[in-house]
Amino acid sequence: MKREEITEKLSDILIETFELEPGDLSPETNLYEDLGLDSIDAVDLFVQIRDITNRRPDPAKAKEVRTFDELIGFVEEELALAAAGAPEPGDPEGLGGGDDE
Questions:
Q1: What is the spatial distance between Cα 2 and Cα 5, in angstroms, rounded to a whole number?
Q2: What is the DSSP string of 39-92?
Q3: pLDDT tens digits, residue range 75-85?
Q4: Within a 13 Å sphere around the CA of 60, how many CA atoms are in the beta-carbon half?
Q5: CA–CA gap between residue 44 and residue 9 (Å, rounded)
Q6: Would you state the pLDDT for residue 41?
Q7: Residue 70 and residue 28: Cα distance in Å, rounded?
Q8: Tens place of pLDDT per residue across the chain (101 aa)
Q9: CATH class for domain 3-83?
Q10: What is the pTM assigned to this prediction?
Q11: Residue 91: its pLDDT value, please?
Q12: DSSP letter at 95?
C-alpha cells in the first residue's frame, strides 16, 4: 500500500470516527492537542488500524505517535512488518495464538 493510500484511509477513519472536517488534518496535526483525541479514542483508532495492517499494533510504538504524519509512518512500518512476516508484538516466537493478554 502506498503512502497516499495510507493517508487517505487514515483520513477517512479520523473524519468518520471523530467527526472531523477534511481541513482539520495536515501532517503536523497533533492528534491529541489539535483534534482533542483522548486515550479511549486512541484505542478505537488503533483497533481500526489493525484492520488495515492485519496485525496487532505495537502498543509501545503506538504510544509514541503524536502527529498525523507519525501515524502514517506507523502504519507504513506495521505494513512492512506484516509483509516481512514479523511476529506480532507480544508473540516473540511468531506462534500466533489467542488474544489472552
A1: 5
A2: HHHHHHHHHHHHHHHTS---HHHHHH--BHHHHHHHHHHHHHHHHTTPPPTT-T
A3: 999 999 999 99
A4: 3
A5: 15
A6: 94
A7: 9
A8: 999 999 999 999 999 999 999 899 999 999 999 999 999 999 999 999 999 999 998 889 999 999 999 999 999 999 999 999 998 887 554 444 444 44
A9: mainly alpha
A10: 0.85
A11: 57
A12: -
Q: At what angle do helices 68-83 and 39-53 cross, to 10 degrees?
A: 40
Reported as a single tens digit per residue, the pLDDT across 5-21 is: 999 999 999 999 999 99
**Is residue 30 classed as helix, strand or coil in its secondary structure?**
strand
Distance CA(38)–CA(21), nearest Å, equals 18
Residue with cell 484492520: 51
End-to-end CA distance of the chain: 30
Q: Identify the CA nearest to 71 among candidates 38, 34, 31.
A: 31
Who contacts 7 (Cβ-Cβ below 8 Å, separation ≥6)? 72
